[in-house]
Structures are given as C-alpha cells and as structure tokens.
Specification:
39% of the residues lie in helices and 9% in strands. It has 5 helices and 2 strands. The protein has helices spanning 2-12, 29-39, 49-55, 81-94, 122-132, and strands at residues 68-73, 98-103. A two-stranded parallel sheet has the order 1-2. Helix 4 (81-94) links the parallel strand 1 and strand 2 (98-103). Mean pLDDT is 76; it is low at 14-31.
Length: 140
C-alpha cells in the first residue's frame, strides 16, 4: 500500500535537521512571550518593534522560502498556534507551497505523536507530502 511505501522510504531517508529555516530565533518560549506581549500592547522594555519584526517568523517569509510543512497543537502552552497560522498565511501570500496540520490537542513538543493515534499520524502525512514534492529520490 501507499502507507507502507512511505514508511519504507522514511526508514531509508537520511536524518534531516527539522528546525525551521530562518526560524531559529523567536521560537523560544521567553521570546514568544515577549513577542505576544508587544503584539497585544503590553509594555516590554526589553523588546522593540524592530526586534518584534525580526523575531516574527511570518515576517521573514519571501518567495524564496522553501515549501513548508507545519504541525501544531492548538493547546500548545509554549508557542501559540497562531504563530503557525500566521506563518502559513504569509507563505500563501508569498506564493510558497505550505501545508498546515493544526491538531485540536497536542502539547508543545509532542514529537512524533507517541501512542496518540491522532498525533502519531502526522509523520506519515509529512512523508507523503515530501514524496509528492519530490524530496525523496525514487528507487528502482
């Protein structure tokens, strides 16, 4: 089946750095708190509007941003799901292919989903997306 083919491809794939490209800043919970505080008008003496723009990943999206696959849990207490929504909207506006999976439940750092039958489905969805986009070499 297609799922077995994708799973087989996943097991043969070399390890990848899964951190967001250009997104290393702004994903730390403390930075997120400060960004959210400034976005909603709360005073913060340590951040400026320029810093907010720099740390807001959605403001860094350009037509050169690579195709993007996003996974987020709505009840993530460390990084608001709105960050992924904003990034996805910025990708669409820039013409960047994007796929967003926003789960109703999923704590921060849920990884591959563990034993949760809903959350553990995203790696297969991602692998199918990667395969469809040509990221995996076809083997004879």
């Amino acid at each position: 089946s297609d799922d077995r083919d994708v799973q087989s491809t996943l097991h043969r794939a070399p390890p990848l750095d899964a951190r967001p490209i250009g997104g290393r800043l702004g994903n730390h919970p403390d930075q997120q708190f400060r960004i959210q505080a400034l976005r909603y008008g709360e005073p913060d003496t340590l951040a400026t509007q320029d810093l907010i723009a720099l740390l807001s990943n959605e403001k860094q999206v350009t037509a050169k941003t690579p195709p993007t696959f996003l996974v987020h849990g709505s009840d993530d207490n460390a990084v608001p799901a709105e960050n992924s929504l904003l990034f996805a909207m910025a990708c669409r506006k820039a013409g960047v292919p994007v796929e967003l999976h926003l789960y109703e439940h999923g704590p921060h750092g849920f990884g591959l989903g563990g034993s949760d039958p809903v959350l553990s489905a995203w790696p297969i969805s991602c692998a199918k997306w990667l395969k469809h986009r040509g990221f995996f070499k076809q083997t004879p």
